[in-house]
């Protein structure tokens, strides 16, 4: 059983168009409304593979109701904390050449009592001793900057490992506090955290090891179309699959994390599965999560101790 907490979920709305031209009237080829938010997507991907999972999230207003209905459709067990403000709707414009433009709203403002209720709901979900707690996404206005540190302390008290996928200030506060079993930044998020560019494999491994030195156990860095790197204190692995033209990259990082956590395997096999799930996600429209039939682990190449001189953009 894996519990996810998504403090700022969304109804993801995707518009597929042939090409984006500013200032023009454009015809939409297809549109999708799907349950979104990073932890929500992890739960959806796990559920589509038959895993037991509970998604903890706040919901409010008509979009909150729609989000819950969408989760029900996908048979995802949701523990919801009702909030007064309306759940956000994030917008994606997906172009035929694979370019994905994401417009993410700040989301609703939560009161102190609502934040406390969210923490209490997470405590209640942790009582079943899940194998992982996944804490994911941006923080809503009103949540304290150390929200994920508080979450990690509660999980650690129960011996539950925490995987964190966030960005910006919440990532910095949490990563510096340490105590995360897994951090999943993408390439840009890790570079922003460290305040420097990370053009080579060696730069990313060095940066990940710096994050480990703050008291975290493992770092999974996703590299967009260039695969992913898994780094612990002793070892590193790179994995990638043949290039595909994405239909939508929204949710690819979340599916990568879900694939990593899905089963307790050796590190390189976890990474292979993670990249297979992420690659499958980009071939699907909007925030669609892959099921078992979409995944091809055999297409993923895994390299132990990759050459530090390799330039990521050239992989
Ligand atoms: N353009 C792409 N082509 C093929 N695979 C991709 C592409 N973009 C992302 N992926 C896959 O999805 C994973 C996560 O993508 P990434 O963009 O790094 O994460 P996030 O969605 O968290 O920003 C990558 O590690 C890769 O396996
Ligand atoms: O909380 P944030 O950082 O605004 O991100 C939320 C958005 O990210 C997603 O979870 C997708 O994330 P990834 O593309 O990084 O996997 C969307 O479903 C959601 O709209």
From TrEMBL:
<dbReference type="InterPro" id="IPR017583">
    <property type="entry name" value="Tagatose/fructose_Pkinase"/>
</dbReference>
<dbReference type="InterPro" id="IPR002173">
    <property type="entry name" value="Carboh/pur_kinase_PfkB_CS"/>
</dbReference>
<keyword id="KW-0418">Kinase</keyword>
<comment type="similarity">
    <text>Belongs to the carbohydrate kinase PfkB family.</text>
</comment>
<dbReference type="InterPro" id="IPR011611">
    <property type="entry name" value="PfkB_dom"/>
</dbReference>
<feature type="domain" description="Carbohydrate kinase PfkB">
    <location>
        <begin position="9"/>
        <end position="289"/>
    </location>
</feature>
<comment type="function">
    <text>Catalyzes the ATP-dependent phosphorylation of fructose-l-phosphate to fructose-l,6-bisphosphate.</text>
</comment>
<dbReference type="InterPro" id="IPR022463">
    <property type="entry name" value="1-PFruKinase"/>
</dbReference>
<dbReference type="GO" id="GO:0005829">
    <property type="term" value="C:cytosol"/>
</dbReference>
<protein>
    <recommendedName>
        <fullName>1-phosphofructokinase</fullName>
        <ecNumber>2.7.1.56</ecNumber>
    </recommendedName>
</protein>
<dbReference type="GO" id="GO:0008662">
    <property type="term" value="F:1-phosphofructokinase activity"/>
</dbReference>
<dbReference type="GO" id="GO:0005524">
    <property type="term" value="F:ATP binding"/>
</dbReference>
<keyword id="KW-0808">Transferase</keyword>
<dbReference type="Pfam" id="PF00294">
    <property type="entry name" value="PfkB"/>
</dbReference>
<dbReference type="InterPro" id="IPR029056">
    <property type="entry name" value="Ribokinase-like"/>
</dbReference>
<keyword id="KW-0547">Nucleotide-binding</keyword>
<keyword id="KW-0067">ATP-binding</keyword>
């Amino acid at each position: 059983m894996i519990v996810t907490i998504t403090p700022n979920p969304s109804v993801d709305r995707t518009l597929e168009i042939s090409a984006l031209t500013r200032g023009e009237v454009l015809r939409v080829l297809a549109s999708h409304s799907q349950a979104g938010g990073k932890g929500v997507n992890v739960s959806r991907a796990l559920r589509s593979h038959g895993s037991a999972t509970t998604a903890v999230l706040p919901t409010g207003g008509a979009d909150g109701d729609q989000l819950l209905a969408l989760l029900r459709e996908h048979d995802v067990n949701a523990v919801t904390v009702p909030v007064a403000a309306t759940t956000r709707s994030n917008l994606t414009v997906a172009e035929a050449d694979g370019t994905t433009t994401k417009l993410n709203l700040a989301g609703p403002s939560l009161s102190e009592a609502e934040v406390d209720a969210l923490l209490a709901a997470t405590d209640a979900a942790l009582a079943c001793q899940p194998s992982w707690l996944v804490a994911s996404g941006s923080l809503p206005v009103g949540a304290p900057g150390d929200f994920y540190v508080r979450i990690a302390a509660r999980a650690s008290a129960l011996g539950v490992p925490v995987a964190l996928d966030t960005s910006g200030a919440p990532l910095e506060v949490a990563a510096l506090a340490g105590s995360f079993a897994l951090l999943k930044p993408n390439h840009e998020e890790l570079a922003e955290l460290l305040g420097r560019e990370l053009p080579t494999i060696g730069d990313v491994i060095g940066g990940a090891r710096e994050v480990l030195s703050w008291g975290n156990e493992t770092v999974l860095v996703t590299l967009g179309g260039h695969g992913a790197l898994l780094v612990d204190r002793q070892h590193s692995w790179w994995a990638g699959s043949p290039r595909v033209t994405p239909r939508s990259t929204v949710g690819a990082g979340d599916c990568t994390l879900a694939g990593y956590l899905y089963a307790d395997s050796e590190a390189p096999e976890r990474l292979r599965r993670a990249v297979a799930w992420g690659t499958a996600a980009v071939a699907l429209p909007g925030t669609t999560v892959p099921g078992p039939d979409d995944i091809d682990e055999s297409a993923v190449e895994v390299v132990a101790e990759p050459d530090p001189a390799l330039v990521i953009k050239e992989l």
